[in-house]
Give the backbone structure.
Amino acid sequence: MKIKKKQKLAKEWFIKLQNIICNNVEQLEKEYGSNKKFKKKKWKHGELRIIKGEVIEKGGVAFSNVIGKFPKEFAKKIPGTKNNTNFWSSGVSVVFHPKNPKIPAMHFNTRFICTQKNWFGGGMDVTPCLVDNKEKKYFHNELKKTCNFHDKKYYAKYKKWCEEYFYLPHREEPRGIGGIFFDYKMDNWEKDFSFVKDVGITFAYLAKKIMEKKMFLKWTQKEKEIQLVKRGRYVEFNLLYDRGTKFGLNSGGNPDAILMSMPPNAKWK
Amino acid sequence: MKIKKKQKLAKEWFIKLQNIICNNVEQLEKEYGSNKKFKKKKWKHGELRIIKGEVIEKGGVAFSNVIGKFPKEFAKKIPGTKNNTNFWSSGVSVVFHPKNPKIPAMHFNTRFICTQKNWFGGGMDVTPCLVDNKEKKYFHNELKKTCNFHDKKYYAKYKKWCEEYFYLPHREEPRGIGGIFFDYKMDNWEKDFSFVKDVGITFAYLAKKIMEKKMFLKWTQKEKEIQLVKRGRYVEFNLLYDRGTKFGLNSGGNPDAILMSMPPNAKWK
């Protein structure tokens, strides 16, 4: 398949997925009785959608399609840029910060990046502030099922990658309970694309399931405080280590879109 | 003068300055009627003091004296590490996040770093969330007086350095109203040390003056909201760009001491 065709298909999928995820959330807000909707902000290279709801205190679903040149130093870390730093990238990124501290923060991203090479990357992970082993088991089990459908080796490999990636070395603590993470996926385009689509659908489904289960539960002020401190850790990870944030800021991304991952509020003790 | 002697003098000064600054703040809390004190936390390489007061909502004054080896990649950016990545460093760092949104956040740091070379660095800057041109003028004028006493060229040079340094490129906005910033200062040790001491005393004095002037003023919820969003920008700068934060995390610093600069809370819209 020609690269232009791949780009077209990937881009169309990301736009579709953005709609699916946003619809799911708006449905959830409706079930809760809030009727809060996403606000859409178009920009040069994409569309950012932000919701400030009653279930999701602050959530962002960003579609982007950026074409440009990497800064020279940054390009060194990116495959296929040795003789040419031009890139084409498209993807969808999601961060949900639910209001209820019993519901974990949720993150998802998939992207297709083209330099002289082209590959998919992405994943999802979940950051609870209160322990819920049943939820952890459910989440990982669903991910495993999705992965296994495509390749029996994926789950263990991408789970490990996620654990290593979403880690705060200065705190010596993981960001959350993990998930799956993959990058530079360029084995077989059709196979990879089908996996990426499935990961997206799995996220849309899981996010709704996890929130639905807990959105009516009551919480205490103490639990809210724990959530705010945990959100501080989330900020630390994203600004100190997250490659997506650095990629965005180094590739002419929209700061509002890149920093939509910031929680509505956070505390430091 | 031998390097050991220089290190001893610098270290003793930083400890003394930590005491002066903390005393000033405790006095201020007393004037306000709060009687809140710093809590001291000793660690392997220094002492961190944190106050959660009524004037200063969260403030940290950290003394540190770290001896170690720089990670190889990081050392490339540090003078005097070509054949030997060992370092000795000592300094004092201060960040104040006042409760009253009419009072700016204040930051100060001075340090003495020894590799195969040795130099002073430091500075101070002020981050208001509400405009106060009178205060800005007063602050810069006092800095200018201190600088001029040592060298007529310092103020313009270090003010510019500060403006360039405390800038958020992704937001295209300065962190605050500037101040002075200098690094790799190795002209004449005695002269440099005397300047560094004067900068420290100037900060201790200015911080008290600026807070005293406004600590009894009333504020609105709207002003508090503006402060919380501005604190979010403060977090972004410190985690995305601050060299001190990166230096600390790369030189075996104490994460609690390094991240004492984090505000007590912050918001993202």
